[in-house]
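hey can u check if this looks right to u? its 362 residues, i copy pasted from the old doc so theres a chance i mangled smth
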Amino acid sequence: MTAAPREDRSRQRTDPTTVDVAAVLRRCRDLVDPALRAAVARLDPASAAQSAYHLGWTDRDGNPSRGGGKALRPALALLAAEACGAPAAVAVPGGAAVELVHNFSLLHDDLIDGDTERRHRPTVWAVWGAPSAVLAGDAMLALAQEVLLEDPSSGAPAAALLLTRTVRELVGGQVADVAFADRDDVGVDECLAMAHGKTGTLLGASTEVGAVLAGAPAAACAALRTFGEQLGLAFQLVDDLLGIWGDPSVTGKPVLADLRERKKSLPVTWAVVHGGDAGRDLAAWLARPEDGDDELTLRRGAALVEAGGGRAWAGDEARRRLAAAETALATLAEHLPTTDPATTRARAELVALGRHLADREA
């Protein structure tokens, strides 16, 4: 076979549409995984075992298992460092830290929501009880700061402060999410603010921490923070759509899971506020949990969300947020001009990863 011309090979390295996202995620996960495992091994035996199970490394009996999440947040940290011209290795402590924070929040979130299954397996609290899930989550949160503060690089203190502020915002988002359950007057703007705290802030921190540890200038760090935050909102909008219309065999969640909980997610809130007659009917439906959670009842709720325009708006808004993320990332060319192929490739990989997340099925 004739080799591709040099300019074509260059294009393949820098064109987001040619990026193998699965391969990028594997590469980043392989770089962060040893540091993450070494950190979890420091925990007390019970917390370490429960954390390893939650992370997909073992089954409930402690036997090695193949599974776990995609390690999206570590990938964002490593790619951000590379996009700033540094080797991915400088961001490994940041990647491990944001993954620990993410999983701390999942352990608590599963308990708060009463979810008994995650990634097609029983959740930690469902296996070991609520106190174990709380304590294992707390241990992972403390470990995240320890990992960052042990990093000898000059950017480590700023990265640790960044992560602490992020956790505060994340908890605020979770508090708002819980409060919405008892309210029937939730607005779209405050629902977006909740989504920013619950999801956007940690994705923003993931990209910013990579830039900080890479020693990037403030303007580049801010651009990558904005990229991550906007991507996080797109991610949450898609997640909310999957929480209603996702395939349970792919998502690992029960059918129509968010409606089963009468959750004030973004498409639901938009439909209630802007959906006219369908929105009013949806608001009445949400106020009647006594109607039950059989599939027929839940599908009626989903139909009302769709009739009220919530499904279409959420899809359009996810695309708008993705476009805003890409616009922010494009400003890196002004703050950090480069002709380095590795740096250019990392920027293309960030774009490709964002588009993948906005078009996912789980």
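The two ends are 38 Å apart (CA to CA).
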